[in-house]
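Q: what does this look like with 2-acetamido-2-deoxy-beta-D-glucopyranose bound?
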Amino acid sequence: MDLFSNLPDEIVCHILSFLTTKETALTSVLSKRWRYLIAFVPNLHIDNSVFLNPEEGKHKSQEIQQSFMDFVDRVLSLQRNSPIKKASLKCLSMRDSDSNRVDDWISNLLARGVCELDLLIYLCMDEYVLLSSKCFESRNLVKLKLDSLCIGVQPDMICCSAPVVGWLAEGIVLPMLKTLVIKSVGFYVDEFFLRALPALEELVLDDVFWLWNVMDVTVSNANLKTLTVNSNHYTGTISFDTPSLVYFCCSDYVAKDYPVVNMENLVEARISLLVTEDQIKRARAPNDYLLDEGDDNVVLRFENVGKLMNGIRNVQYLDLSAVTLEVLSFCCDSMPVFNNLKSLTIKSDENHTWQAMPVLIRNCPHLETLVLEGLSHHVADNCGDACDCVSRKGKGRSLTSCPVKVLEIKGFQGTEKEMDMVKHLLNYFLCLMEIKIYMNVDIKGRDLEAIVENMKHYNKNCNVQFLVNGDLYKEWRAQ
Ligand SMILES: *[C@@H]1O[C@H](CO)[C@@H](O)[C@H](O)[C@H]1NC(C)=O
């Protein structure tokens, strides 16, 4: 304590700013000087997870919540209008009636010039918090994260009538905002509100849903560089008008349609579409399922993904999930030519088809590196062009014109089927100079030796590397 007492104020403030505010407040009981200093800590981290205890009865938890809110009020009033840089607020079991209080806290922090604000709001069952837009006015805010957690609610219930944090984002004024992360929040917005954020560079929309019956969502911003959309619920269509976008990561449910996809400067895209097993079944056998379909035509929905692909056609690096590859087999007719694509990564699993592979490979005229994460796939009618599943006329045809130089195969297990596939790929990729095979299973030494020995006879024109658990195991050079 004595050691601390001798430290200058700025240093103590700095140390205090690493503690959560509750710890800071407890510490400050110890000395008058510290109590005085808590008023000047530049960072505020209020984390009520220490209070969170689902075992407690409802009455008890209301009491705790009341004292938590009083605590926040006390800290904020103690700090008056001293400037603040970063603040994170994890709010305990909030209710509809607490909305104004949260609004007041946000207003307080923004008025004091906070640059980074991280809000995590826990909701009780059946409760609802609405953040108003009037409190979102700041010339200093650079980074905003808004996250809600529903306690005791299944995530898939959220889109019905379960509790939500709603955000009235119309009329917000955040001219410096660069990063916006929104998770599990319902938007009460004019769908174009993102346009009003002139400095926005990074946007994450995770499990977001649009209220007021917004059927067609548009993500529109002239400046945006990176966009991550993850598990979002679209009732209708989604459009992206983001001409400066460089990085796009999409793990969304397939929307009904993609009317506008403007991403002409895109460099890297990772697409991992979410579909239900039922959607895949219906798409594979549309006639069997017509009766169940209602107004949702799954085949049409999958065909429209072609518009998304067309919008990202300028990418240099593309990463596709196994599901996405199967969805693409429904839009082969509209597949764009990926003129800039240098590196393509494709994940495979035994449940999804490779039917889009021939078209995809043919439409990458400048491909240099192909990474296949897994070789097994669901065998379907049109197999046999890029793969060797079915013996057919024109086998391997799509591969022969492909300029790919480097092939990487990940998750290789050395099965006979995989060996045949590698042989096939080595036969038909005529420009191949290097192949890297990654094995992450422990194969007994002798078997591995046999696999390597076998592979030596497949192709003598390219360098081969075997990597086991990340370490180089064997390699040989082209002859
Ligand atoms: C493939 O489907 C089966 C049966 O539905 C499932 O058990 C298995 O986990 C699936 N595999 C992958 C990689 O998703």
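Residues 355 and 381 are 8 Å apart (CA to CA). Residues 349-351 surround 2-acetamido-2-deoxy-beta-D-glucopyranose (CB under 6 Å).
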